[in-house]
Amino acid sequence: MFLGEYQHSLDAxxxxxxxxxFREQLEDAFVVTKGLDNxxxxxxxxxxxxxxxxLHSLPFTKADVRxxxxxxxxxxxxxECDKQGRIVLPPNLREYAGIERDVIIIGVGARVEIxxxxxxxxxxxxxxxxxxxxxxxxxxxxx
Length: 143
Known about the structure:
Layout: E1 5-9, E2 15-17, H1 20-26, E3 30-34, E4 40-44, H2 45-57, H3 63-74, E5 77-79, E6 86-88, H4 91-97, E7 102-108, E8 111-116, H5 117-129, H6 131-140
Antiparallel strand pairs: 1-7, 2-6, 3-4, 3-5, 4-8, 7-8
């Protein structure tokens, strides 16, 4: 399970260091793709396979399913960390997420998310304002 929040910076070659606790769980290879809310998702290969299977089971005759699958898979790349624990974030993903230099890397259970620091700060400010309401809504869902 991925937990925690870490701050890092993009180097001149577009690389970031993946926190060592996350590298251990990501193992040798993982998948990186466009996430929701303009962040980047990283999935261990086993988790990616589960998501892939679920998405392929959806009815491709529905336009919204086709659109989401295209968006999600077309941006995906299998990656490995270098010996220093870094990855090169593809330019299309950096642009999508608005990443220029400072990033926040967070653990979100089964995946890792990479955010532009400014976008993460805005997101958390908005979410904190309604955190208790969100929690109450989850209780209503039985969580």
